[in-house]
Every structure is written in structure tokens, then in C-alpha cells.
């Protein structure tokens, strides 16, 4: 798409493709949300959107991506990929930043359809956006945050070499809950073989960077 080159941006890994979603991709992602992301009685998200009924989860998934497309600007952006594994959209992986040209700092966020948990996909898709951040965009730091009872997310974070960066106490559905913050410096990032970026140069100006 000539006037929105982000739709041509993708990352490939040994098993995955991460790409900006088409409308058909978003429909499939919404199906994954409706089918379930986590076990009942547990909430890994700051905003409990996944606690809604399946149809509402599907709609809110679409709306989130539409808002991200419409609000993207060089000063503040979120690139939200769909993750394709074995020909199926299985989840989403985001990379976001504010004043990236100055801060050179990104954050990440993701979810994966529950039936695809336990296959190492979460680690591989996080590695993919770290490759984009450090190898493609020249980031200096990547940050992430998760509730301390989100053991799967914390395991991925620690596996990838992030360092602890403090805690925050939140109101989670009327009860206090602690999140742990982490930071990964460029010098501590380890590049992995088989990760490739496609069609990035045309996107740089949309992210506040020059080619």
C-alpha cells in the first residue's frame, strides 16, 4: 500500500511470520480471542478486556487494532503484528514507543490463543520484535511489564536477558496486584539466527526516523 507502507512490513523467524494484519487476518485474530486466551479466573491484563463474553472479546480485538492504525504518529506509535504459525493466525505481538527518535526506548505487549500455549511461540514472537527494535530501528532499550503471577510472560522475559527494573502496584479488578518491570539494554540483547526484516525502510518516517 503506497501511502501506508506499514502494511508491507513483516518479520520472519524460523517458525513464524509477524505482519501487519489484513482485515481477514483481524477476523481470524478475533476468533482466537473469542476462543480464549487464558484460563478462567485469572487476569493477565491491566484492562480486563478478556473477561468479556466471546463476541465482545472478538469485537474489542478488532477495535483495538483500528484505533492503533488511526492514532499512529511519529511522536507515539504502536505496531501490532499478527503472529502466523503453521498457516494460522495464533496471536498478536506489539511494539510501541513514545518520542522514539529521542528516547530510543520501546515497550512490548502480546497475547497468544490459549490452545497455542506451551509451544515456545511466545518466546519466538518476542524475539522477533526485539530484532526489529534493536537491529532494525536502533533502539537502546526495550521494556516490558507483567503481573507477578503471570509466570509464562515472566519466564519469556527472563529467558531473553531482561533485568529487573522495579515494581508497580495496580488495582486489578478491585484488588491490589503487583507488576514487575524489566529492561533489556542493547548491549545485553543477543541476536538470533533466522530472523529477518522485510520492507522496513519505507516505514521509518512514519515512526519518526530517517532512512
TrEMBL record:
Domain N-acetyltransferase: 16-185
Keyword entries, A-Z: Transferase
Keyword Transferase: yes
Top-level taxon of origin: Bacteria
InterPro entries for this protein: Acyl_CoA_acyltransferase, GNAT_dom, Ribosomal_N-acetyltransferase
Pfam families: Acetyltransf_3 (PF13302)
GO MF annotations, alphabetized: protein N-terminal-serine acetyltransferase activity; protein-N-terminal-alanine acetyltransferase activity
Keyword Transferase: yes
GO CC list: cytoplasm
Protein name: N-acetyltransferase
Lineage, uppermost ranks: Bacteria, Bacillati, Actinomycetota, Actinomycetes, Streptosporangiales
